[in-house]
Amino acid sequence: MQNSTYRQEGSTLYLVSIVLVAVIGGLLFGYDTAVISGAEKGLQAFFQSAPDFVYTDAWHGFTTSSALIGCIVGALLSGQLAMSFGRKKTLFVAGILFLLSALGSYYPEFLFFEKGVACKSLLTAFNGYRILGGIGVGLASAICPMYIAEISPARKRGKMVSWNQFAIIFGQLVVYFVNFLILRSHASDPDVVAWTNSIGWRVMFVSEAVPAGLFALLILLVPETPRYLAMHGQEEKAMEVLSNINGEARAREILADIKQTMTAESDKKREKLFSFGFLVVFIGCMLSVFQQIIGINAVLYFAPRIFESMGVSNNMLFTVIMGVVNITFTLVAVFTVEKLGRKPLLITGSLGMALGAFGVALSSIVSLPAVVPVLSIMVYSASFMFSWGPICWVYIAELFPNTIRSRATAIAVAFQWIFNFVVSSTFVPMYTRSPFFAYALYGVICLVAAVFVWRLVPETKGKTLEDMTALWRKSAE
Predict the structure, then answer these.
(1) What are the distances in angstroms from CA 188 to CA 181, 184, 318, 359?
(2) Domains and CATH numbers, the chain
(3) 42-49: which pairs have CB atoms within 8 A and are 24 or more residues apart?
(4) pTM score, two decimals?
(5) What was the pLDDT predicted at 264?
(6) Angstrom distance (rounded) from CA 199 to CA 237
(7) pLDDT at site 380
(8) Contact predicate 330/323, CB 8 Å
């Protein structure tokens, strides 16, 4: 990777190989958050056999969502870790946490408990391993987009960061398929239910160890980001990475721009989150909040339940179809973000989601053919996948100035996980009480999100990360 051609002209292959490694972190993000969907029934049956406590629905609800606690913690820790130890080392830590979580969730009895005997203390250990994985998710969700943004040229940055969202959705589909194969492998077993309740759920969790181990190994082979290297006095290494990607001439220009953002004034303010004003942090956090409160996780997590309530007989089939739609429209974002820009995609997606949400809301109070709410759900989900799904991550990765990026990103991503929990925990009660109100509310929020983007969010298409630093410094003066 160090030959003279790379240094003179730069190499797209070198960039793509680095990004492919980084997006495995996104795949693990999707894998870890979705693996519980196939394992939860067997897990519930296992802990219901515990003799020392009653495993209630409340306990099961906490167990299936305990990873979210780790996600919030990981996101909050990501800024300090990325600033102190670097983006690469923080991603390595995330990979190790994914691996430990997969192994521990498979065998929570390790050292301290009798295998196969459920008890309250074992449940605590299991949730501890799930929280460890959640911390890995929180770290990866913040650092993967940041890493890709800091390593990519401005003209390719949006496309490269968008691949991370594709990897998240792909990771979810992969684990659905893996869970299906695990169950199918014992479908002919006369005691398949007993196998699922004792072993099947364990195999589902440990399957994550394969991509987790691969990620932890491969991340050691990629370079640290040139922005981090330059800000920590390693200019020769930063120049080497920049040259391999951009060519020597352009690398000198980029390095000079990076150094310019590290003026005495910026260095003095480096520890202050609001050095560049309140607005930049506010916009970044609100983008994260809107990505969640427009309600997408209510659809993704409860799609089978929603389709069933609409009178669809084969609800799992439509859930799979929706997964294919999600992948397809995420690719739309990947291949149009550098042509159309970030703001047009966000605004168009917001309006499309509003249309879909209002369609579902209307269907709940007016007798319409089942195809209308089903198509509305599809429009809603597809609109998210080419807009708020990938583009929010692009913005979070490139919006913040160099000297506060790691800490501001950590706060913004923590807001995502907090409001992910809020939406996920409030949807079922809201939907049960009034489907019309639930989807009408999401539709209104989508319209508010479109106005927010139109009025406050700057377009970052074609701008370097250093251009954004200059923009916010000027606005803060």
Answers:
(1) 13, 8, 26, 43
(2) 4-222 (1.20.1250.20), 278-476 (1.20.1250.20)
(3) 42/196, 42/197, 42/198, 42/200, 42/201, 43/201, 45/196, 45/197, 46/118, 46/197, 46/198, 46/201, 47/118, 47/123, 48/118, 49/118
(4) 0.83
(5) 40
(6) 48
(7) 92
(8) no
